[in-house]
Target: ATP-binding cassette domain-containing protein
Amino acid sequence: MTQPREDDEYKWHTGKKRPSGVEDAVEFVEVHKAFGRNKILRGLNMGIPNDKISMILGPSGTGKSVCIKHMVGLLYPDEGDVLVHGESVPNMRDEELFEMRKKFGVLFQDGALFGSMNLWDNVAFPLRQHTDKGEDEIEDIVNRRLREVGLEGSSDKMPNELSGGMRKRAGFARALVLDPDIVLFDEPDSGLDPVRTALLCELIQEIHEENGGAYVVITHDIMSAKRVAEYIAVLWKGRIVESGPAEELFDSENQFVRQFLSGASQGPLGME
Ligand SMILES: Nc1ncnc2c1ncn2[C@@H]1O[C@H](COP(=O)(O)OP(=O)(O)OP(=O)(O)O)[C@@H](O)[C@H]1O
Model:
């Protein structure tokens, strides 16, 4: 193999994509995205496998949230394509996009609950908004999801009466009520102490085992990745450095991946 040039900024991008063994739920094909002069995604090729918990890892500001927004059609690529179950998101008409979004459940950083509604109504909201289910059925679903996340006793509480961890669990219950094929977690561990992070990771695993589907977690918390990731994609400078089954990535020979996954201060990744 030829040695990468010292001045090649992609020299750590070995381009290795180890197969996950299943089809992709979401694919990025040569995606470019810039905001003004700030080029964020620069020819990104990434697949998110079906039925696994995947983690997109990467240093701050590399564009992990930007990726998630492309998946649900909140941002469009300048070039390239984003496919969800093989369908091109940028080419969807408004009605198709609306239908496609129903495949997704999204857990935002703080749970993104409506402050004026109690917990129960927050979790029921997507069912009332997007389905014609009757109140009895809605009640069954909401109670089941609240039980799953351990919040059945708090359904009358308002969001500002809940702790950060409870708000995240409530956001998780709400993300699940429409039985999504794909669940996106935007830094689920942010603002949680290590014990609550560990408990949330366990909950994510348990619920994934029960429900299946593609879970996509973005984080820079390596401990969470060690706990729950089945598939990992490491993003840096707008492209994937390496991706594959978690155990193989934790065993990677790529110096950048090794440094990032071990949290070491010495290595190719600096403060830039
Ligand atoms: N709508 C937007 N307009 C302009 N710039 C944006 C927009 N969205 C994101 N950016 C820029 O894109 C870059 C990547 O942001 P992004 O939030 O995706 O990073 P991240 O990898 O999720 O970071 P972190 O781990 O710190 O949350 C940042 O420099 C951000 O300022």
